[in-house]
Amino acid sequence: MARQTMNRRWLLAVAAALAGLGPGRGFAQRSPVRVTREEPVVERREFNARRPPRDMPPLAPTESGVCKTTFELGASVTYSSLRVSDTSARIYVDELDIVTRLRFEIFTVRGAPPKLRAHEEGHRAIGEHYYRDAVQIAEEIGRRLIGETFVASGADQEAAQRAGFEQVVAEIERAYMARVRIPSAAANERFDAITNHGLEPIDEAEAIAVALAG
């Protein structure tokens, strides 16, 4: 069984508040988009069926395990801003530092058969498949945003710039998760359907291949 979650875990926004300057000025010496892909983190936990962990996703009556997959993204944005009015600003995206993360929490009932463990590890393999190209995906998204402008409003200039920053990171999040988390969740659902949540005798590797083929 699979559970997919998404965390908005954003890093510090770096505001190059250069009023009146256009995008990208002064940043020609290095790539404007830099991506760090952290290695997946896997936590495996056994539980007593009578006292399941409080932080474990709920199980259906026929299930004895679950793989919780969490895709995370951090973004540091360097931008220039142009004052539009006292309460609005135009943000120019100059640089992006993006960090991608993937975390698995695999819960299996104590004494679970190897077949169940293999099934939950299959969910992990599917998540890692879609995470494999995280750097390329994040770079493509970031490059499209360099030089883009976002107009936002707030109580004052600081609030307006913060709102513009939120627009930038929301767009990064939306585009990245559409290409990583959403297809991973769909493939995991197909994997459960093919294997009947690990109850069918089909080999996990075969089931994974079919699920990924869509």
Topology:
Blueprint: E1 2-8, E2 14-15, E3 33-37, E4 41-47, E5 65-85, E6 88-109, H1 114-131, H2 134-145, E7 149-153, H3 157-179, H4 181-195, H5 204-213
Parallel strand pairs: 1-5, 2-5, 3-6, 4-6
Antiparallel strand pairs: 5-6, 6-7
Helix pairs in contact: 1-4, 1-5, 2-3, 4-5
What would you note in describing this structure?
By secondary structure, the protein is α/β, with parallel strands linked by helices. Helix content is 36%, strand content 32%. The protein is built from five helices and seven strands, in the order E-E-E-E-E-E-H-H-E-H-H-H. Strands 1, 2, 3, 4, 5, 6 and 7 form a seven-stranded mixed sheet that branches. Helix 4 packs across helix 5 (204-213). The longest helix is centred in the C-terminal third of the chain and has 23 residues, at 157-179. It is elongated.
Binned strand content: 25-35%
Global morphology: elongated
Number of strands: 7
The number of helical segments is 5
CA(first)-CA(last) distance: 18 Å
In angstroms, what is the radius of gyration? 21 Å
Give the overall average pLDDT: 87
**Major pleated sheet:** 7 strands, mixed
Poorly predicted regions: 2-28
Structural class: alpha/beta
SSE string, helix = H, strand = E? EEEEEEHHEHHH
Percent range of helical residues: 25-40%
Question: Could you give a quick summary of the protein structure above?
Answer:
The protein has 214 residues and is α/β, with parallel strands linked by helices.
